[in-house]
Amino acid sequence: MKQNILLALLPFWEPQIPPMGLACLKGYLEKFGCRVQTFDANIKEEFNDIYQQYFDCLQEGIPEDKRGNFHNIGQEVLRNHMMAHLNYTDEKAYLELVKILVYSTFYITIDEDTVHSLNRVVEDFYRCLETYFLELLGNGNIDVLGLSVFKGNLPASMFAFRLAREKYPHIRTVMGGAVFAGTLTKGSPNFTNFLEKTGDYIDKIIVGEGEVLFLQLLQGKLDDSQRVYTIEDINNEALDLSGVGLPDFSNLELEFYPNMAAYTSRSCPYQCSFCTETVYWGKYRKKSPQQVVEELKQLYETYRYQLFLMCDSLLNPTITDLAEALIEADMSIYWDGYLRVDSHACDAEKVMVWRRGGFYRARLGVESGSQHVLELMGKKITPEEMKTAIINLASAGIKTTTYWVIGHPGETGEDFRQTLDIIEELKDSIYEAWCSPFYYYLSGQVHSHYDPWVKNSRLLYPEEAADMLIAQTWIVDSDPPREEVYKRVNQFVRHCERLAIPNPYSMLDFYKADERWQQLHRNAVPSIVEFENRDKIIDENKRVKKLVTATRKLTQDMDFGF
Predict the structure, then answer these.
(1) In sequence order, which ranges of 143-272 are alpha helices (DSSP H)?
(2) Average of pLDDT values for 303-324?
(3) Considering only the top CATH level, what class is 259-439+493-543?
(4) Residue 471 φ/ψ region, left for φ over 0, alpha for ψ in the -120 to 50 degree band, beta for the rest
(5) Is the pLDDT of residue 382 over 80?
(6) Which of 43, 69, 116, 178 could form a disulfide with 256 if both were Cys (CB 3.0 to 4.6 A apart)?
(7) CB of 531 closer than 8 Å to CB of 307
(8) Range name among 177-181, 344-348, 547-551 with the lowest pLDDT average
């Protein structure tokens, strides 16, 4: 099966780690004789410049008091603008839609000059992307083009597929990625519209875990009359992680990424109302700690990275075993990842084991400081447990990145105030604080079909814009109203700024955040800049000393209901 395969990740996606999905596919497919090349356009300076130009231009039209979490929520404007530009036929309606996109996010009406300035940046992006992608395609000497697609790079990916079909009709085009976990959930109106609009240039679509499906597609084992494939087409055969092998990052320009990527598991054992992980990945599976340690060792020896970002949905089921295995192996590998507040995180002794095992940063989906909202979300934690976990992690020196959801249906003003209060109480134990407004998908979330949400859902943008946007946005008309949610986002950001809690965006911001963390905590993990010298081995985790144990006491027995 000697097929030449080109796999790519197009803008815009933050290049924090090399693209894990592409590397996993490359490592897997090449064992079966495929020739695979992987590319990440997000590290290219020209695209980063265009991205910054767009947000500089957008910022000029937005008052400072409405710029809370500007780049995060502004991504929605950029993505929809890029999509509309790709598909419009009526220029007047298109330019009016750009105004609507901005107003629906920032609640300010931008002027005509700003609209045209933003549009020129988008035009520059597509010209740049065309040049770049044609160079990737070369003389068309590839058999299969596969693009890994997320919500943020959907417009660029559609443009590239269309360009490939126009220039080289013989290339088979295959699309996969996390976009099918929410924006284009199978069976949703967005998915139906997408299939209809892209039938001429996207041949095959893989929804969910891609290795086995992609291989069987290449081998001709799947029904070729189908266009969309899911795990159901392979008898629900989830990939056996015990024999999957290493991801292959060899084609990628690794010097541009601050972290290497790895993982210990796939899917998630929990069921939070707003989340799409279990719906997309299906059955939860994990590797043995010995397998992970061996993989980390091999990745370090191959690429000389000591700092890893674990791509697991959650590390809770594997974190203690992994830390103990790394300690036993006498390895100084540092790693961060997503963590849920649970009884182990509330155990200071256990957290210190994680620290000595190299745990570097905990990305905590704490979501809200209100017990009422946590119960609405199905989080099965309390604010008191949240405080204990964050203090334990910070006392061990582990960076605490906290993620908060603003405006979950049913969140009151008092609920939101409780979130601000808990952040203020924990300000010295929070490394960084990120917030996002609540997003709703018609399908794909655990609670997508929750009756009150369905009954009160509506399109955010005009129905007649569907042909331009392809993937429409739905919202739930409930308390708090959308405009109030975005006011709270702005208030959240100002609150964190007043408390000097960072929300770093650039590498310079991260350096400053690390300086603050090291001033606050004697046990602070090394700064990210210390890992830039790949020839130097950092092993301070082996010598970290336990400080005074966090004295916070829980007022009730710990029973998380897991």
Answers:
(1) 154-167, 189-198, 211-218
(2) 96
(3) alpha beta
(4) beta
(5) yes
(6) 43
(7) yes
(8) 547-551
